[in-house]
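Need a sequence for this fold. Nothing fancy.
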């Protein structure tokens, strides 16, 4: 039977999956991504692409060993945004700069023409983007920078591993801050602003395009044949949103390590107050206006592991359903996006002395409510800026497995939250859609029914939000310009 080999390179881990044309997952193998500290900077991390390649090929081999009768129809990949792999003149992938690398932070003060950079790239000047990472590398690690002959996104790195083709997809290119959203090309102006040679930027290819056949030396491996095609993927957020069935004018929320809140529009959006990012959609087919509360789901995972490693997520949901009061608030999201401000301090807030009837469930519920409130704050502002008039928002991503989180968000926003079947594995499903389109047909929907969360008059989460807003501001007061 034919399957697609789909690869998802996230921030924390990488997955390889066998998925049929209906989006049904046969098997998944994964590994944790390994990072290293670079002591040349206060806050720099890197990865060695060879480490990831070795682990990825082991995952593919394990999948094939378990299912030796499969044939691979297509291979495609999605990858975390704001991350790049560096190739040298010999075609060796020698260094990786992930989205969690902040080596450019101390050099951001040297960048001029900030308003123009935002206008062209849709992103404000910050260490988050690949241009800043490359600047930091050049300033303090020139021996590495001088080796660069081309750069690849994470999804583009997988394209290169399997085909030898170097390319960049627009949904990833816009995260470099070297791509012009209006012209849909690499920008000489943006390269000049960061003093980056545009010759290191590979050709652009659109999501859903076929690069042709797989490297001949891989034929016979993992179920790959001479008929197997590689289909260009893209950024994990945009691939995930594809699963929601988003249309122009819709807003979709991706609940994962972070929580992008995005509106799909037909034309490039420009906000003179720079309260949003504008992203290229897959294949440069429209634009996404984005706000993001920063780290969210990862916080909840860490807190759960620390406070309740013995409880399942299902047991926690059952406990949350019984809550009628709260004893603590939490603030762990990392961005006040619309103010372009990082939230450097976080924690739990509770009355003194310690409430005698408070337990770990109260703290975990507070951490989940923190995600709901931080996401809602982005959502209502994006609704205003984008002119959103629909009575629903779309959702996808593993974080929405929590029915409590879903209901909190619906109650706060007053909008119905809609989740299509397969929302838990949205990135893989989005890649399936791209592969199917390349093969000439649309993917039928996952089996199952759509989940809809209707707003309720829930006083508890509204009371929490009021207290949460006060506590977060107390911990992270606005910076005075005086």
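Here you go.
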């Amino acid at each position: 039977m034919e399957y697609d080999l789909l690869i998802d390179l996230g921030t924390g881990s990488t997955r390889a999956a066998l998925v049929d044309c209906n989006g049904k997952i046969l098997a998944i193998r994964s590994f944790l991504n390994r990072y290293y500290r670079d002591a040349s900077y206060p806050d720099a991390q890197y990865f060695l692409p060879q480490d990831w390649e070795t682990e990825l090929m082991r995952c593919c081999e394990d999948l094939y060993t378990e299912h030796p009768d499969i044939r691979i129809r297509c291979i495609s990949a999605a990858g975390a945004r704001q991350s790049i792999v560096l190739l040298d003149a010999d075609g060796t992938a020698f260094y990786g700069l992930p989205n969690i690398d902040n080596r450019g932070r101390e050099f951001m003060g040297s960048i001029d023409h900030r308003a123009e950079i935002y206008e062209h790239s849709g992103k404000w000047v910050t260490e988050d983007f690949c241009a800043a990472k490359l600047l930091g590398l050049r300033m303090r690690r020139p021996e590495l920078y001088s080796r660069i002959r081309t750069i690849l996104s994470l999804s583009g790195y997988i394209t290169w591993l399997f085909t030898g083709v170097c390319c960049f997809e627009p949904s990833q290119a816009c995260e470099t801050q070297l791509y012009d959203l209006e012209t849909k090309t690499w920008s000489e102006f943006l390269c000049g602003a960061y003093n980056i040679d545009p010759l290191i930027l590979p050709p652009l290819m659109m999501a859903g395009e076929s690069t042709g056949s797989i490297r001949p030396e891989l034929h016979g491996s993992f179920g790959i044949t001479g008929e197997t095609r590689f289909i260009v993927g893209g950024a994990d957020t945009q691939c995930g949103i594809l699963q929601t069935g988003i249309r122009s004018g819709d807003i979709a929320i991706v609940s994962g390590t972070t929580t992008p809140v995005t509106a799909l529009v037909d034309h490039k959006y420009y906000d003179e107050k720079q309260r949003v990012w504008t992203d290229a959609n897959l294949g440069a087919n429209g634009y996404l206006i984005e706000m993001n509360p920063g780290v969210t789901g990862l916080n909840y995972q860490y807190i759960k592991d620390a406070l309740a490693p013995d409880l399942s997520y299902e047991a926690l949901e059952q406990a949350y359903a019984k809550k009628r009061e709260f004893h603590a608030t939490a603030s762990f999201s990392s961005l006040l996006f619309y103010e372009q401000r990082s939230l450097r301090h976080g924690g739990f807030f509770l009355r003194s002395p310690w409430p005698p009837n408070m337990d770990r469930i109260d703290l975990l519920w507070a951490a989940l409510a923190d995600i709901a409130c931080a996401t809602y704050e982005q959502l209502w502002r994006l609704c205003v800026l984008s002119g959103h008039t629909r009575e629903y928002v779309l959702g996808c991503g593993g974080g929405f497995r929590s029915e409590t989180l879903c209901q909190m968000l619906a109650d706060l926003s007053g909008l119905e939250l809609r989740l299509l079947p397969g929302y838990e594995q949205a990135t893989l499903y989005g890649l399936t859609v791209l592969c199917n389109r390349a093969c000439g047909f649309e993917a039928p929907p996952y089996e199952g029914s759509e989940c809809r969360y209707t707003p309720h008059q829930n006083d508890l989460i509204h009371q929490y939000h009021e207290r949460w807003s006060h506590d977060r501001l107390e911990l992270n007061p606005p910076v005075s310009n005086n």
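For context: The chain has 14 helices and 24 strands.
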